[in-house]
Structure prediction request, 300 residues.
Amino acid sequence: MGTATVSPRAQRTTVPMISAAWRRHLGKAAIYLTLLLLAVTLIGVPIGWVVATALMDQRQIFAWPPVYIPDPFHWENFGLLFERFPFVKYALNSTLICAVNIVGNVFSCSIVAYAFARLQFPGRNILFLLVLSGLMIPNQILMIPQFVLFSTLGWTGSYLPLTVPSFFASSFSGAFFIFLMRQYIMTIPRELDEAARIDGASTWQIYRSIIMPLCIPPITLITVLTFLWTWNDFVGPLIYINNSEDFTIQLGLATLRDRFHIEWNLIMAGAVLAMLPCAIIYFLAQKYIIGGIASVGIKG
Prediction:
């Protein structure tokens, strides 16, 4: 058999196709490399610095030139943290506040969102715009009026100012969660509601038995965001909690610092432990977080 020959025309058409494919691969590689560098710069470096500082002693922390890798690793810093600092108690206090806020936000925001998405009543669109306007109000503006209100009610010094507002879908987070749930509920076919109505289901039964089980992605997103925001909140507990026994984890870590002496290694060790629940919950629920965010705006 003779050797196959490729015509000059075929050669001219093959080379550009190969080069175009390589250009696509190189473009993707450049994008991934850029994202990797940004992730390392914005996430890896700060977290690595916190972990490294948590494993140093005071001499290494203030050494010049700077020490980037502890030598040796001072694992005993975590033991000293638990000896000098009631970390478990403060973590339980934060967990309690987070749990109550999660229940309050899921309950209140889902009910309000269901009403805006499914019920017909006069002024519905105007009220929804008023709710969305809460997204434009910074929490700093509400601090003084809220403090005056809670002080008048005698709630200062307790967890009530940090938990009760979640049952009324208040502040920025409430408006955002209502918008998120409403947009997701509007993607659920109304035929399911109509079929339930024919079977004699009430509005409350439709909400409880049909809407809520189908809203797992936005509910998971609300749960995770509420936990992250409440767990990392420092200003709220600083304003309303007076007794050191009731401190949250973030407020408690601030007690490791005084006017004359700061043990940065213990503070960073506490910060590492405080970050672990957030990281674990985020990685376990990231699929639902992405799904919940992607559902916003699908149907107006």
Notes: The chain has two domains: 8-44, 76-294.
